[in-house]
């Protein structure tokens, strides 16, 4: 069984909407960094925040007190279902599954909840804030907003969790009673997160993110959400109109030491490279991950064109895997790649340093390497219709 992407939704620091964000990336634009400070902290950090305009029109009583992470997820999920032409009603509510990929969770409300407890005592614990502190809060909000009554899961992990959620969706969709699975990855940013990643020596204080740099100066965190609506592929490109297929979602692996990440990546790339890809969507973010992916690509697919969007959008952790799948799908559909920003020209990989046409591209590999021990990947394929196959 293969799954096809029926619709996608995107909320980023460059705005919202798949086509709108894609056009800005093609023009070589990057998000503007916002300083983040804390009353009891002695450092100021930079982050790529979602502009308020990206959530304009998102009105629902359920979201009135919801955290940002839930609002980002709702906006992306609603866009994906709309793009798929799915209207949830009493007849199909039980035939739609929901899988959430999440990493840091609702840290803003969690910090506020426990700060109130520490400062005032347990009696100050807010019953309104507590539900927002659990990892499955965004999934609960979106399921209630949509009226979805099918299977709902929340998968917790690092930057690779989005691709692992897609693999879970494959398993879920073996249930013939389901028609769609909506997969959503979401992330919100707070000073506390920035401080934690800085202590782990993974964060830089100011942009730019320099991908594949030997200096490994670090990443800039970002927030937002990505969503894809998956359905079973009928087997007919003519019937579905040039669908994007998830050909192979690889289980990846976990590394205990950073040096092990490269070996896992090489093994995964060999499996995914059985059908040669036209390009690779990398998760390079300015950390040790870049060198692991670079060395693996050089050994397994040395001629592959490589693109990473994290210098433009930032490291969105829980949302990043879904963002990368959206990037791969958009590049296959539109036959071009945006420029990789802030990369030096002496990097041995074939980077799309300027806007690059890939007009006959039909396959792409997405690599998702988390900084906390998880690695995953998948292969996307554009199924051409008969006229396109004849012209090729």
At a glance:
The chain has 392 residues and is of the alpha/beta class.
Number of helix segments? Answer: 12
CATH homologous group name of the largest domain: Thiolase/Chalcone synthase
**Class computed from helices, strands and strand pairing:** alpha/beta
Low-pLDDT windows of residues:
none
Number of strands: 17
Overall helicity: 25-40%
Q: How confident is the prediction overall: mean pLDDT?
A: 93
From the alpha carbons, calculate the radius of gyration and give it in angstroms: 20 Å
- Gap from first CA to last CA: 26 Å
Biggest sheet statistics: 12 strands, mixed
Query: Secondary-structure element sequence?
Result: EEHEEHEHHEHEHEEHEHEHEHHEEEEEH
Q: Any idea what the CATH architecture of the largest domain is?
A: 3-Layer(aba) Sandwich
The CATH topology annotation of the largest domain reads as Peroxisomal Thiolase, Chain A, domain 1
Broad shape: globular
Total of domains: 2
Give the amount of beta strand, in percent.
Answer: 15-25%
């Amino acid at each position: 069984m293969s799954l096809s992407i029926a619709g996608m939704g995107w909320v980023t620091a460059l705005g919202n909407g798949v086509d709108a964000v894609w056009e800005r990336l093609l023009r070589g634009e990057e998000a503007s960094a916002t300083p983040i400070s804390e009353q009891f902290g002695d450092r100021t950090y930079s982050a790529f925040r979602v502009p308020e305009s990206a959530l304009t029109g998102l009105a629902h009583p359920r979201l009135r007190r919801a955290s940002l992470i839930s609002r980002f997820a709702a906006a992306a999920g609603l866009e994906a279902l709309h793009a798929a032409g799915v209207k949830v009603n009493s007849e199909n509510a039980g035939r739609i599954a929901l899988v959430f990929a999440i990493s840091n969770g609702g840290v803003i409300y969690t910090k506020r909840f426990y700060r109130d407890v520490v400062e005032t005592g347990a009696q100050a614990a807010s019953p309104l804030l507590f539900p927002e502190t659990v990892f499955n809060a965004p999934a609960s909000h979106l399921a209630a907003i949509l009226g979805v009554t099918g299977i709902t899961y929340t998968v917790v992990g690092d930057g690779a969790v989005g691709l692992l959620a897609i693999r879970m969706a494959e398993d879920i969709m073996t249930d013939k009673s389901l028609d769609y699975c909506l997969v959503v990855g979401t992330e919100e940013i707070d000073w506390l997160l920035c401080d934690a990643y800085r202590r782990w020596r993974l964060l830089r204080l100011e942009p730019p993110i320099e991908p594949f740099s030997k200096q490994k100066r670090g990443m800039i965190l970002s927030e937002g959400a990505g969503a894809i609506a998956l359905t079973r592929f009928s087997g007919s490109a003519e019937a579905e109109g040039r669908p994007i297929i998830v050909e192979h979602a690889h289980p990846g692996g976990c590394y205990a030491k950073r040096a092990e990440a490269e070996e896992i990546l090489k093994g995964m790339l060999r499996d995914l490279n059985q059908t040669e890809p036209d390009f690779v969507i990398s998760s390079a973010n300015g950390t040790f991950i870049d060198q692991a992916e670079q060395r693996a690509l050089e050994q397994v697919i040395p001629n592959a064109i490589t693109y990473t969007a994290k210098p433009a959008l930032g490291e969105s952790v829980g949302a990043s895997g879904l963002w990368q799948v959206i990037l791969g799908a958009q590049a296959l559909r539109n036959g071009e790649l945006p420029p990789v920003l802030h990369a030096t020209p002496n990097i041995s990989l074939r980077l799309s340093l300027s806007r690059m046409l890939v007009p006959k591209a039909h396959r792409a590999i997405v690599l998702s390497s988390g900084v906390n021990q998880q690695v995953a990947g998948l292969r996307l394929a554009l199924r051409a219709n008969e006229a396109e196959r004849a012209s090729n």
